[in-house]
C-alpha cells in the first residue's frame, strides 16, 4: 500500500486528494476543496492571488490527511504563467499578480512588445498573460518589486519554497513563461537579459519525480516531489494511451487543445505562429492553443443568477432539443475578455452585427456552447487533418454531454471523456513513479484504464450544426476581411 497527497490548484478552485495504491487498485479520497483566493484591488485595477489563504488551506489539508493516513509524498500542480518574487531576506514581495489582471483592456498590449525571437526560442506565442508580459507590466507599474527581488518562483514552486525553503523550478511550469528555451530545456537567459530583467531571479530547472524537500507534520517529515507542475501537462500525463502521438482537449476555465508527441517529431518542423509549444514533463512536447473556455459559461451563470437561480445541470437540459442559433462570434476576441462584462459585451456585439437576440437563458448558453464547439472543430481540423484518432477530453467542462457530443459531431472524431480530475490524477501518478510504486508507462495506462475507463462520444452526422459551422467559418472570414 502506498499513500500520497495530490494538490491541484485551478484558477477558480483547488483541492487536496489522497490517493492510495494497493495491488493495482487505486482509491481516491478528497480531503476538501476551497475557493475564493483572488484579491481584487479596484483602485489599482489589479487582481492578485491570496497566497496566505492558499497556504493556510494547504497546511490544514496536510494536517487532516496525515492524521488519518501515513502520507509518503506530496505534490502540487497549478495553472501556468503566474509567479511570486522573493527578496534577499527570504520574504515574499507582495502577493502574486494574477494573469487576469493582464486580460484587462488597458494591459493587453504588454503581450505584443516581445520580438519574434522570443516565440521561436521559447515556443510560446506572444500573449499578455505570459510571465514575460507580467514582468514588463511590473517594470512599468511596480519597479521596486523587481529591484528588491532575488528569486522568481512559479506558483507550485513558490508553494514548495513556503513549505520547505527549496528554490527550484520544474520544467513543465517553467515552459509556460515564454522565458524557457524549448530546445535547450533551460532558461533563455540572453532573452531575459534583453528585457532588462535580472537573470539571477531564475532558479535551477528540475524534472518531475525530483524530491524537493520535506514538510513536518507531527513527528513525520513528509517528502515533497516535483510532478508535472503545469496542470495541463499533469492531466495529459494521466491519459489512458500509449500512442506516440495523441490529441487532447482540456476543458476548464481555460480550454487547451493540442497534440502530445515526441520532441523530435515536433521540433524538426518550423514552429507555427498560432500554437504554443510546452514541455510535457516526460520528455515529450505539447503543441497547443490556449483559449478561454468554461470561463464564458461561468460568467454567464454569474450574470443569470443575479436575477434567477439556475444550475449548470438545468442549463444542459435546456439545450437538449435546441436547434443551432445564427449567432456567430470569435470566442477569443479581446472585446469579450473583461471579467463581469461578458454578457453585455456579447449582446452589444450582436446588435452591431444584426445577430439574433439572446433573449432567453437557453439562447445565451447555446450561443456560447456552439461557438466554443466551432472553435474546437476549426483547431482540430488544422491539428489532426484527415486522421481519425480519438480526442481525449478532460476537466470540469467534460461534464457537458451537449458540448462533448457536438464536438464529436463537428470534428468527426471520437471524444474519449476521461476522469474529470485528471490533473490531480496525473500529479498522483508522477508521485507513485517517484516512489517506484509504478515503474513503467504501460503499468500507468493499465491502472488509469481500470480505475477510470473513458466514456466515448461517437461522431454522428448532424446536418443542422454542420451547416451552422460553415456559416460560422464564413462569418469569421468576412469579419477578418473587414478587420472588425
TrEMBL record:
Gene Ontology CC, one term: cytosol
InterPro entries, per the entry: ATPase_NBD, FGGY_C, FGGY_N, Rhamnulokinase
Key words of the record: ATP-binding, Disulfide bond, Kinase, Nucleotide-binding, Rhamnose metabolism, Transferase
GO molecular function: ATP binding; glycerol kinase activity; rhamnulokinase activity
GO biological process: glycerol metabolic process; rhamnose catabolic process
The Carbohydrate kinase FGGY N-terminal domain, residue ranges: 4-217
Highest taxon of the lineage: Bacteria
Domain Carbohydrate kinase FGGY C-terminal: 249-434
Record keyword Repeat present: no
Gene3D superfamilies: 3.30.420.40
Family the entry assigns: Belongs to the FGGY kinase family.
Name of the protein this chain belongs to: Rhamnulokinase
Organism: Amphibacillus marinus
Amino acid at each position: 500500500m502506498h499513500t500520497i497527497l495530490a494538490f491541484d490548484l485551478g484558477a477558480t478552485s483547488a483541492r487536496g486528494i489522497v490517493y492510495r495504491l494497493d495491488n493495482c487498485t487505486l482509491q481516491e479520497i478528497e480531503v476538501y476543496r476551497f475557493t475564493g483566493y483572488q484579491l481584487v484591488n479596484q483602485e489599482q485595477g489589479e487582481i492578485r492571488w491570496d497566497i496566505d489563504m492558499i497556504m493556510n488551506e494547504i497546511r490544514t489539508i496536510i494536517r487532516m490527511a496525515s492524521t488519518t493516513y501515513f502520507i509518503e509524498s506530496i505534490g502540487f500542480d497549478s495553472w501556468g504563467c503566474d509567479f511570486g518574487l522573493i527578496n534577499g531576506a527570504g520574504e515574499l514581495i507582495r502577493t502574486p499578480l494574477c494573469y487576469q489582471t493582464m486580460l484587462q483592456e488597458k494591459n493587453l498590449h504588454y503581450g505584443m512588445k516581445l520580438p519574434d525571437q522570443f516565440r521561436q526560442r521559447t515556443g510560446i506565442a506572444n500573449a499578455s498573460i505570459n510571465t514575460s508580459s507580467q514582468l514588463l507590466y511590473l517594470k512599468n507599474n511596480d519597479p521596486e518589486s523587481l529591484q528588491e527581488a532575488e528569486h522568481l518562483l512559479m506558483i507550485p514552486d513558490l508553494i514548495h519554497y513556503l513549505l520547505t525553503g527549496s528554490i527550484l523550478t520544474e520544467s513543465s511550469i517553467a515552459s509556460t513563461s515564454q522565458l524557457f528555451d524549448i530546445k535547450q530545456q533551460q532558461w533563455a537567459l540572453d532573452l531575459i537579459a534583453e528585457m532588462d530583467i535580472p537573470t539571477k531571479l531564475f532558479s535551477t530547472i528540475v524534472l518531475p519525480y525530483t524530491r524537493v524537500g520535506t514538510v513536518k507534520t507531527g513527528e513525520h517529515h513528509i517528502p515533497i516531489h516535483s510532478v508535472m507542475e503545469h496542470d495541463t501537462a499533469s492531466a495529459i500525463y494521466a491519459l489512458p494511451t500509449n500512442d506516440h502521438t495523441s490529441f487532447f482537449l482540456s476543458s476548464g476555465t481555460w480550454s487547451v487543445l493540442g497534440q502530445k508527441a515526441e520532441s523530435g517529431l515536433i521540433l524538426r518542423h518550423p514552429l507555427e505562429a498560432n500554437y504554443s509549444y510546452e514541455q510535457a514533463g516526460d520528455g515529450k512536447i505539447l503543441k497547443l492553443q490556449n483559449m478561454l473556455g468554461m470561463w464564458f459559461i461561468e460568467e454567464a451563470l454569474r450574470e443569470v443568477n443575479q436575477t434567477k437561480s439556475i444550475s449548470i445541470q438545468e442549463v444542459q437540459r435546456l439545450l437538449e432539443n435546441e436547434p443551432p442559433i445564427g449567432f456567430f462570434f470569435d470566442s477569443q476576441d479581446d472585446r469579450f475578455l473583461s471579467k463581469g462584462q461578458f454578457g453585455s459585451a456579447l449582446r452589444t456585439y450582436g446588435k452591431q452585427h444584426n445577430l439574433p437576440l439572446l433573449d432567453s437563458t437557453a439562447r445565451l448558453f447555446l450561443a456560447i456552447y456552439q461557438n466554443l464547439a466551432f472553435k474546437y472543430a476549426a483547431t482540430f481540423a488544422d491539428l489532426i487533418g484527415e486522421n481519425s484518432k480519438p480526442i481525449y477530453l478532460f476537466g470540469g467542462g467534460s461534464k457537458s454531454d451537449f458540448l462533448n457530443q457536438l464536438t464529436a459531431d463537428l470534428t468527426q472524431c471520437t471524444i474519449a471523456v476521461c476522469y474529470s480530475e485528471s490533473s490531480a490524477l496525473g500529479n498522483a501518478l508522477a508521485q507513485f513513479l517517484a516512489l517506484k510504486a509504478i515503474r513503467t508507462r504501460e503499468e500507468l495506462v493499465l491502472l488509469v484504464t481500470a480505475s477510470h475507463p473513458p466514456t466515448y462520444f461517437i461522431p454522428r452526422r448532424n446536418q443542422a450544426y454542420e451547416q451552422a459551422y460553415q456559416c460560422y467559418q464564413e462569418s469569421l472570414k468576412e469579419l477578418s476581411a473587414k478587420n472588425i
